[in-house]
């Protein structure tokens, strides 16, 4: 059994996608958000670079944090859940050897899928302006290295191209096709600008395709069912949880500061929170194994 598959039989992204239905992923940004996502019944989750660097470090997703920083959050997340985890690995944080190092690093801490993109470092969030992408051949070499050198062939390699905003859709589709030939298992063509473009992407490829509804972004926001009809098998609400959490915290603080106390019923109850973090299990362990202070052999 390989390093990634040991203890990971219940974490296969391939198995999750094998049913053919469109699945909905939510973006975790820490262990707690990951546990909420898992408890909701979601079949897998996405680790959002945007969410992680914003929540953990309080900075924007513009290349200010890289593998060493983000992997700490990924380790927390994968340790907290038993569902498959797709990790946003940006551009792999360097050349082909860095890409391999990144993919293997994430495999070793429990990721079942890793996404590599073609943005030029420092990267920017997918719907931000002023993006730049690396040359076609450089990106394909990274995907080839990731696919060939991963520890476990079960680990899925997602190829993400941001070339639509830079060179147009035809170039983006060409990059995606080349990545498939290089060994990519799934594709994410970022920031298409119309339903017709989504339809064209969906009709071009017979592999798992990811779409990301982003209110305020450049792409049409559709329902998961509508994306599924267009050929997309994964609908990823990557930054929705962190935006929701930030908005809820701010609203609740203002609610108390302004003495309205109108939002208390939106809080998770203390009991539900203890259930979420597994309090009953730890209390049971304590009860079974608590030291009494007696000497060995004493009743």
Shape: globular
For the CA atoms, what is the radius of gyration? 21 Å
Total DSSP E strands: 8
Order of helices and strands: HEHEHHEHEHEHHEHEHEHHH
Distance between the termini: 44 Å
- At CATH level 2, the architecture of the largest domain is Alpha-Beta Barrel
> What is the CATH domain class of the largest domain?
Alpha Beta
Give the number of domains: 2
**Helical residue percent?**
40-55%
| Unreliable stretches covering 5 or more consecutive residues | 1-9
User: Given the structure, what is the number of helices?
Assistant: 13
Q: What is the overall pLDDT average?
A: 92
Strand portion, in percent?
A: 5-15%
Task: Determine the structural class based on helices, strands and strand pairing.
Answer: alpha/beta
For the record, what is the CATH homologous superfamily label of the largest domain?
Phosphoenolpyruvate-binding domains
User: What is the name of the CATH topology of the largest domain?
Assistant: TIM Barrel
Strand order of the largest sheet: 6-5-4-3-2-1-8-7
The main β sheet shows up as: 8 strands, parallel
């Amino acid at each position: 059994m390989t390093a990634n598959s040991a203890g990971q039989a219940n974490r296969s992204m391939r198995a999750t996608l094998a049913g053919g239905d469109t699945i909905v992923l939510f973006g975790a940004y820490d262990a707690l958000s990951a546990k909420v996502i898992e408890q909701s019944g979601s079949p897998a989750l996405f680790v959002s670079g945007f969410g992680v660097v914003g929540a953990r470090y309080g900075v924007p997703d513009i290349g200010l944090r890289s593998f060493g920083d983000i992997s700490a959050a990924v380790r927390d997340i994968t340790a907290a859940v038993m569902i498959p985890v797709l990790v946003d690995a940006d551009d792999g944080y360097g050349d082909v050897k860095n890409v391999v190092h990144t993919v293997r690093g994430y495999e070793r801490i429990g990721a079942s899928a890793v996404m590599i993109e073609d943005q030029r470092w420092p990267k920017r969030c997918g719907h931000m302006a002023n993006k730049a992408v690396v040359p076609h051949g450089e990106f394909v070499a990274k995907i080839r290295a990731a696919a060939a050198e991963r520890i476990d062939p079960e680990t899925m390699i997602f190829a993400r191209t941001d070339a639509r905003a830079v060179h147009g859709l035809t170039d983006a589709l060409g990059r995606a096709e080349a990545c498939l030939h290089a060994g990519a298992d799934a594709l994410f063509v970022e920031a298409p600008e119309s339903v017709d473009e989504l339809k064209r992407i969906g009709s071009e490829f017979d592999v798992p395709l990811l779409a990301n509804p982003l209110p305020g972004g450049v792409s049409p926001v559709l329902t998961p069912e509508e994306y599924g009809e267009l050929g997309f098998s994964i609908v990823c609400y990557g930054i929705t949880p962190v935006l929701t959490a930030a908005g809820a915290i701010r609203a609740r603080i203002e609610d108390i500061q302004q003495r309205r106390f109108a939002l208390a019923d939106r809080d998770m109850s203390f009991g539900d929170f203890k259930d979420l973090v597994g309090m009953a299990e730890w209390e049971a362990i304590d009860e079974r194994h608590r030291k009494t202070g007696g000497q060995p052999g004493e009743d």
